[in-house]
Amino acid sequence: MQELVYLSELLNQYTQGELAKKEFEGRIFTFILKNHHRFHLFDWDKDTCADFLSWFYPRMSRAIDTYKDIGASFEAYIGSLVYWSAREYRSRQAAHDLTEYAFWEARAEDMNFCESDPVYLEPLPAIKPVSNPRQILILLLKTYCFLSDDHISRIAPAIGIEKAQLRHLIDELRKRRLERDEERRGLNERTQCQYYRCIVFEKKLEAALEGSIQYEKIKGQMERAKTRYKTMRKRLASMSHYATNREIAEVLGIPKGTVDSSLYAIKRKNKQANPEYANSRVNA
């Protein structure tokens, strides 16, 4: 009873002008912190309660202005406010923890298998000149996004072209594909975000009571999220990283048919040299 009287006395002092609002709020804040066990705050420790009250303070300040002594006492009013605010705070923290878990779960593989650029202790041998440099040049431009500076330096002499010139051709292709590359990067980011949502729904489903309305609701959300994630992945996979034959022809200043025939010839030679690979592709 003494604790309840204390809150009533504080209210009386505040309404009579003996306490300023900031001092009144501060004393209520201190009272709740010292007596957090009275408010059934989910068995939180004192530090967690302090974090909650820091979040709760602005809400308490607004609630004091709206309190009217009609029906419920000031003690019951504060107790109800603390209780429902604590439930909301706990729900928000759980959602935040799930989101953080989803992020690290999705990034764990990348972090574990991240490799630095290779360091060559001995210089790599130069690539011997090729018999059909134009075909190799077209193939290189077709896969320009996978070429490193080291690869360009080593392959340029083999096809009879300066490194700067080869780099210029690649840069021209990248300029032409900039818009499409931006679209691909945006879709990739959205796909990763959708993956995080799927993980969050899975964790929420594990915590929900099976057979309950909440369980069925989360299950439906998870199924829709996974369906959308699969659709986004298919669309991302269909967006080719390669340059189109027309783009290569425009950069080189040659007919598109020449590019088509060169790539077809390379593909045919590869099938002849690797019949097992060709058969596996047909069977797939």
Helix tally equals 12
CA gyration radius, whole angstroms: 33 Å
Give the termini distance in whole angstroms: 79 Å
Work out the count of structural domains: 3
Largest sheet: none
| Low-pLDDT runs | 111-117, 280-284
The percent range for strand residues is under 5%
- Kindly state the percentage of residues in helix: over 70%
Architecture of the largest domain, CATH level 2? Orthogonal Bundle
The overall strand count is: 0
Average of the residue pLDDT scores: 77
**Class by helix and strand content?**
mainly alpha
Question: Which shape, going by the Cα principal axes?
Answer: elongated
**Could you spell the SSE succession in H and E letters?**
HHHHHHHHHHHH
**The level-1 CATH class of the largest domain:** Mainly Alpha
CATH topology of the largest domain: Rna Polymerase Sigma Factor, Chain: A
Write the layout of secondary structure elements.
Layout: H1 2-15, H2 21-34, H3 46-66, H4 74-112, H5 133-142, H6 149-158, H7 163-176, H8 178-207, H9 213-238, H10 245-252, H11 256-273, H12 275-283
Helix pairs in contact: 1-2, 2-3, 3-4, 4-8, 5-11, 7-10, 8-9, 10-11, 11-12
Q: What distinguishing features does this structure have?
A:
284 residues; mainly alpha; Rna Polymerase Sigma Factor, Chain: A; 3 domains; 12 helices; 75% helix; 0% strand; disordered C terminus
Walk me through this protein's architecture.
The N and C termini lie far apart (about 80 Å). The protein has helices at about 1-15, 20-35, 45-65, 75-110, 135-140, 150-160, 165-175, 180-205, 215-240, 245-250, 255-275, 275-284. The protein is elongated. The protein has three domains: about 1-95, Rna Polymerase Sigma Factor, Chain: A (Orthogonal Bundle), CATH 1.10.1740; about 135-175 and about 245-284, no CATH class; about 180-240. By secondary structure, it is an all-alpha fold.
